[in-house]
Design brief:
Blueprint lengths: L9 E5 L3 H13 L3 E5 L5 H7 L5 E4 L9 H9 L9 E5 L3 H11 L3 E4 L4 H12 L3 E3 L2 E3 L1
Parallel strand pairs: 1-2, 1-3, 3-4, 4-5, 5-6
Antiparallel strand pairs: 6-7
Length: 140
């Protein structure tokens, strides 16, 4: 049964680990979102454009083949149609090292893995409403 907190929202997930992708997608779908995804790469920016309009992008920071989430973020920001979509890092990277950098680069949030089911959906909903989330605490 779906809980409609994310009904009608189109969410793009970039995650290279199929298990994490399955968990994230399942949670988001349970709350009513439509999910699009890619497994990695700077080419993701063009893939996202094909699924427009997208409401939010969830982006892993650690990707294969020497590509980082920051590389993908830069590619997304370079496309005018995508530049205003909120992007949240969802990552196992060390938050003490990466959270400040993610904020400076233009992410609207940082959610650490493993994902905490109780706060994950609330955090995504908060960003969709114009807020930011850094760790487990949504910010206005």
């Amino acid at each position: 049964m779906s809980v409609p907190i994310l009904d009608g929202k189109k969410i793009f997930v970039l995650e290279d680990d199929v298990n994490n992708l399955a968990i994230i997608s399942s949670m988001l779908r349970r709350y009513g979102a439509t999910i699009f995804f890619d497994t990695w790469g700077v080419e993701t920016a063009r893939t996202i454009k094909a699924f427009m309009p997208i409401d939010i992008i969830l982006l892993d920071l650690m990707l294969p083949n020497n590509v980082t989430g920051y590389d993908v973020l830069t590619a997304i920001q370079a496309i005018p149609e995508l530049a205003n979509i909120p992007i949240v890092a969802v990552t196992a990277s060390d938050p003490d090292r990466e959270m400040k950098k993610a904020r400076e680069k233009g992410f609207k949030g940082y959610i650490s893995k493993p994902i905490r089911t109780k706060t994950f959906i609330k955090s995504i909903a908060h960003v969709l409403q114009g807020g930011e989330v850094w760790g487990d605490a949504p910010e206005s």
